[in-house]
Amino acid sequence: MKLSLRPSRAAAILALLLLTGAATPAPPLAFPEVDHILVAKAARTMTLYGVDGSVSVIEHAQLGGAPVGSKQFEGDQRTPEGRFVIDYGNPNSAYHLSLHIAYPRPEDTAYARAQDRSPGGLIFIHGQPNDWPVGRAPGDWTDGCIALSDDEIEALWAAVPDGTPIEIVP
User: Fold this and answer.
1) Which of 72, 93, 143, 150 has its CA 20 to 30 A from that of 132?
2) What pLDDT score was predicted for residue 114?
3) Mean pLDDT throughout 12-37?
């Protein structure tokens, strides 16, 4: 048995596909200007509080290779906990784009120095490695940074001005 569609039926199916968005790409991810950021390490979430009162949540944030506990020393692969600010962005990052978290604070440095150690530094929110083919690198893989998808860091980059407060909680 041969199945054929009448021209009007084919046109109706095509119109339905077009109206439901099957033929249109998704718009790029965008956030309103961010007033402050809250990162919940255990939940792997980043909540963005917009200056307009909006709230956006980024899920599946990736952390340092030893994500439990606050960063204490260089090389411990922990993501710091506490209140910080985003103080600059790096458009030439090895991880797509990156936003610097102003770590260490004076108390972090004092603690590490009292143990005759370095507190580390260069903690960023960033995208995936530039040489990563597509998607995300698996698991928690940073040295203490917070990794997002490239689309997410692009949207965050556009929405987060220097001086934006960030709180990182366990």
Assistant:
1) 72
2) 97
3) 72
Residue 16, in any domain of the structure: no
Are the C-beta atoms of 79 and 71 separated by less than 8 Å? yes
Report which of residues 31 and 19 the model is more confident about.
31
Domain count, the chain: 1
152 occurs within a structural domain: yes
Pick from 120, 147, 122: nearest CA to 135: 147
Please compute Rg for the chain using Cα positions. Answer: 21
CA distance 46 to 38: 6
Residue 39 C-alpha from the chain's centroid: 10
For residue 76, the domain's CATH number is: 2.40.440.10
Residue listed under structure tokens 């603690």: 111
pTM above 0.90, yes or no: no
* pLDDT tens string 121-140: 999 999 999 999 888 999 99
Token couple for 89? 């962005």
Q: How far apart are CA 165 and CA 129, in angstroms?
A: 25
